[in-house]
């Protein structure tokens, strides 16, 4: 295919990606070093109240935003260097907390709290998703042919459901005196409220994430199981391999590329944890990095959006995903080069 | 085919794998099933302590809303035949009355007519007949299962949820059509070009796919809010403010989805033998003619699958739509967040549940109809790549 034809085919797609993905990245990068604020000016205001004989007048100096001829506030954009990053990271508090050796103090700074949760959320659910997905795939592969279709249908439901609704549906089972909370209370004999402390919320979130992503892993593993070489399996049986050894030494190595693929997708998607915070309404206890950026971007009571802090936290989020993906990407790259030879 | 004796499994293993599967299915379906049940009960029943109270709904029944045994039996029978008819007779009718070449349109019309007929029969005709029957049958006709549709009426009619529904439809329809048009061209180009440039484009797309969406939205927001001032030098006085515009959100979602779309379509196009378009080229077609006349007729399975995933992205999105659309143009998923903020009474809570079920219902239908395509789409990228 000639370059010109190729360019004509991919042109629209590349243009859209450049305009709406690459350009915003550059603009976020620039914004994170800038602050846009309304220009304030101080004016002297004399207020008079009617009194006996003479009016009582007081003069005071007020700070008001300057207006242009159309009555709009004039804003100015200044370069502030790393100021916004400092506002998000709060390094001074961080170092003093390190000095005290106090983990709790670090966890009171929003960014570090969000980073801690996002990383544990991503890394803890990864083995669970792969394990549960593989287990379901093996069980379905074991089942009689006639029930496979319905099982796949039911399994796809948690995967396809809107993430906010999925987390809400679990939230409603446990909120207040939801039926499952009541069941747990009866079982343990204690008064339980699942949404009053962060560790119970986190357990529910891990459960939700595994529930939501395991079907994806299951479908892919299931397809992979269909291509396992039966001859290798049979020779393993002849060599006296037990069922467990066959799984460990024949099936898992066969599925290895799929495990890496799922890990890659899972890291990308779970690092974005955001809807789960909205669905479980856990802002007061548990937040994630995307939620932090979202929170900076939503207008506060005065209608202002903290765009520069949002940009700084967005850039930090991006650095995080790069670090997280370096390992699996290097591995696929090595495999890619290895297979080329 | 009989399995060799050494491969046969002990009863214990078969039993435990079956039990595990049963538990998984229960876990997978239970939360969704339960919110559906909750949405049909009065608030007291919906948040009752005992599961049986939630299912049978004594308070709902006491207020006069309920189903009798006759209602349930007859309703299930009608439902069974309606579903069977949809899968056996409807496809034949669509094929018979639809002019060839417009089969997609024919299916859309067919599904719409079927949906309207179903709603008329199930919610219009059936209650009338059942009302008469229940009066005649005495003990069999007294309600045993509490059920009320009040919350759905409140959500859709009083709270004007249909506006959000229409906005959702507009956004998802836009996302699916544009992302498929742009994506098929790019996917075809990438699949047929073996150049280094194509390889690097795909790697860049993979990197773009990893970006959290909030990073991108942080880039759009200031530009979108001030866009009329920024674009004034180019477009003059009519420069639009992009913030709050559905089509701006469509463009954003299409672009965010592009990396995934081109990866998936590329893997589908690679499965179409290159000899096919080479033959067309030998016969004197240009690349575009080959694409239009030879590839387009055989590419539909891949395009439908990719379209499903684009639909899910547009339909399920919360972050982009909630930040870039204003209140009048809000789609369904962010609109449900409005319920949390004023969720003070239990009635509000059950209305939120009803709204959540309304959002899930179309997805449920989607899995039911397109299960095979979804599975093939999930495996296309992984197994062959």
Automatic annotation (TrEMBL), chain A:
Pfam families, alphabetized: BPD_transp_1 (PF00528)
Keywords for the protein's UniProt record, in alphabetical order: Cell membrane, Membrane, Transmembrane, Transmembrane helix, Transport
Transmembrane segments: 7-30, 117-140, 152-174, 203-225, 250-268, 306-327
GO biological process terms, semicolon-separated: transmembrane transport
Topological category with respect to the lipid bilayer: Multi-pass membrane protein
Family (UniProt): Belongs to the binding-protein-dependent transport system permease family.
Protein name: ABC transporter permease
Automatic annotation (TrEMBL), chain B:
Protein name as catalogued: ABC transmembrane type-1 domain-containing protein
GO biological process terms held by the UniProt record: transmembrane transport
Transmembrane regions: 12-35, 66-87, 99-130, 169-190, 197-225, 245-265, 294-315, 352-370
Record family assignment: Belongs to the binding-protein-dependent transport system permease family.
InterPro entries per UniProt: BP-dep_ABC_trans_perm (IPR050901), MetI-like (IPR000515), MetI-like_sf (IPR035906)
Organism: Roseobacter cerasinus
One CC-aspect GO term: plasma membrane
Superkingdom in the source lineage: Bacteria
Pfam families linked to this entry: BPD_transp_1
Limits of the ABC transmembrane type-1 domain: 165-370
Topology class, membrane: Multi-pass membrane protein
Compartmental location: Cell membrane
Keyword annotations from UniProtKB, A to Z: Cell membrane, Membrane, Transmembrane, Transmembrane helix, Transport
